């Protein structure tokens, strides 16, 4: 199957590496990748009451060795590097099982790492055996195609979202529960569904309206769902037909936000007016006295637009 116009705004069924090869060079604005973690679970896990934990034991998460996993990651990351625009960026999420290997491969492929973001789960699964610390976070790598990439980052919008404080690299977000968790016949549709709030921050902060957002491991379609709601175009790649069906049903229920709601008004710089123009147009007169906030300091407007305070002029 060829990706006509890269099959924009759809979930494409097939192997991600083969499908990525069909996407043109330098054509994607933002990539979010939630690859297999290669958890290598060797046995079932049980709670203290002897009920079985619904852990990630899917076939798509299993590799014969760490070396096989590295080869797999190098292939899909190489394609992502090729198709990513010089103005774009990529996010990859993982745990201690895989994220360090992924990060090393990304640096070998000349991605430029901008941040590692720690997703702190406010409601993590307990460590039932009591043999380790409670694993309550996952790590995201945010990177660009090269060191010189002119990437998108809506700094002021993220600051506003964070109560007018700089958005930090530790994000406290609960795991999917309740109505957000997609279920089929009473069972979780996907074992590693990510919360929409996580993708909301990523897409809102590092892409623009109408940008192309790609997810090579689409799963239940969270990336595509949030991208559609935020007025982005999207491409989802997924090898399991069942997940494609789940994602398409999810997408059919989403209505994009109105453009005026996603226009980044806070990012727009207000025009600057030369002080001399204010004098020229009569808004301020030479000889007029101006005061600082709280009136602790004052200055006299000069005819040339400068200000004089006692014996200081500027």
Structural account:
The protein has 2 domains: 4-267, Vaccinia Virus protein VP39 (Rossmann fold); 275-313, no CATH class. Helix content is 25%, strand content 22%. It contains 8 helices and 14 strands. A hairpin with a 2-residue loop joins strand 13 (307-309) and strand 14 (312-313). The longest helix is centred in the first third of the chain and has 18 residues, at 66-83. It is elongated, with a radius of gyration of 25 Å.
* Alpha carbon gyration radius: 25 Å
Query: What separation lies between the terminal Cα atoms?
Result: 68 Å
Helix and strand string, N-terminal first? EHEHEHEEHEEEHEHEHHEEEE
Number of domains: 2
Q: Looking at CATH, which topology of the largest domain would you report?
A: Rossmann fold
- By helix and strand content, what is the structural category? alpha/beta
| Average pLDDT for all residues | 89
The CATH architecture of the largest domain would be 3-Layer(aba) Sandwich
Low-pLDDT residue intervals, each spanning 5 or more residues? none
Percentage of residues in helical conformation: 10-25%
- Largest sheet, spatial ordering of strands: 1-10-9-2-3-5-4-6
Multimerization status: single chain
CATH class of the largest domain: Alpha Beta
Number of separate helices: 8
SS elements, strand count: 14
Beta-strand level of the residues, as a percent range? 15-25%
